[in-house]
Amino acid sequence: MAQGIGSLNFKAITAPYDPDLKIHLPSNTPFGLTEQVVYLYGGWREADGTLHVFERKFIGPMTAGLWLMKALHGSVEIDDVSAETVRGEVKRSYGDDEYVLQGQMMEKIGKGGLSYKFALRAGEFTWTEGDDVLALDGKLVGPGIQIYAPDVAEPLLYISELYKVKGTVKGDEVEGFVFLDHAYWAPGHDWKEYRVFKDLQLGWQAFANEYSDGSIEWGHLCLGRHGFNFTGVGSADGPVSCDSSVTAGLDLGDDDYCTRQTWRASDGKRWVFELEAPLSGFTKARWGGYRAQAGHTKRVGDDRELRLGFSWLETFGDRIREDKIRSFDEAMADG
After folding, report:
1. For residue 82, which of 170, 195, 1, 14 has the smallest C-alpha distance?
2. Residue 106: its pLDDT value, please?
3. Please, what's the largest Cα pairwise distance for the chain?
4. Residues 6 or more apart from 179 whose CB is under 8 A from it?
5. Short-list 116, 211, 208, 224, CA closest to 162
6. Interacting residues of 230 by C-beta distance below 8 A, sequence separation 6+
7. DSSP helix/strand/coil, 245
8. pLDDT of residue 5
9. Quick one: which of 250, 296, 245, 235 has its CA closest to 268?
């Protein structure tokens, strides 16, 4: 089928990058694209393994609040305190050694008058919400991962950094991972209006694993349409797999939640996701067949003992059926 100049089937390119505090300035315009959204998201666990999942999203200085979730009775539901967290406009401060996002105009509107402060420094951050909702310290894990899908009309640059965190959430001691991501695309669109979200994405996950030897492997794995497929996986030492020629397969279970998915890079490296719990409340707030699920991800053939792990997978069951994506077993049998 004929295409115009600049239409490249959204074939994604992935590579590591060296994190630098200046990367997080909203005035950056890589490839002439502007920063459209910043995400803080991920998961942490209590000592008994109980899973917490969260997201805080920023568009400019505006935030919709903290989605604080916890695994209960087989699904991940939203904690009521989420409605009390800081939302609306925050104050942004950019110094040479520290960038700060701090609750400002709206922080005293919440029921409990909760505060918010996220302070990012070179290789680390501190994050607090209220007096007892959340207090975390994060340490950067190696290089970041960048994902670029060129297109003349709807290009995307997505950059991601992983931080290992410890602290307390509602009085419980937790340990886990925070992803700090920026996305850049053409102006005039919201993410849910953009083609990557509303059409191309079939199964995209972010995951992080810490093993008993202290090593960490993390990254992004994506199955999509029109060439939008990739592995962008790294460790504290550098890239593990950065590939655009990715094949995949998955199984959908109850209410279209994915129970298993696999991604295979062209060099033979393969990762397998297994469902832990649906992100039920988070999913209900979205549309277009969107499903979010938490789980466990492991690289096939990697015999390291897993100490701490988290995966967030987003899928679209209607598109998966429309494209006749093969099953998990069929993909695994393909070598």
Report:
1. 170
2. 57
3. 59
4. 39, 40, 41, 42, 160, 161, 162, 163, 206, 208
5. 208
6. 12, 13, 14, 147, 220, 221, 222, 242, 243, 244, 246
7. coil
8. 81
9. 245
- Give the tens place of pLDDT for each residue, 209-264: 999 999 999 999 999 998 999 999 999 999 999 999 999 999 999 999 999 999 99
User: What does the alpha-carbon distance between residue 46 and residue 319 come to, in Å, rounded to a whole number?
Assistant: 36
Give the model confidence (pLDDT) of 61-100 as tens digits. 999 899 999 998 888 999 999 988 998 999 999 999 999 9
Tokens read off for 176: 């886990």
Instruction: Report DSSP state, residue 200.
Output: I
Give residue 127's pLDDT band: very low, low, confident or very high (50, 70, 90): very high
If you search the block for the tokens 């209960």, which residue do you land on?
A: 72
Global confidence as pTM? 0.95
Ranges of each domain in the chain: 13-17+30-332
pLDDT higher at 315 or 285? 315
Q: What SS3 state is found at 281?
A: helix
What sections of 198-295 are H helices per DSSP? Answer: 280-284
Contact in structure between 242 and 148 (CB atoms under 8 Å): no
Q: How far apart are CA 84 and CA 272, in angstroms?
A: 37
- Given this model, what pLDDT does residue 93 score? 96
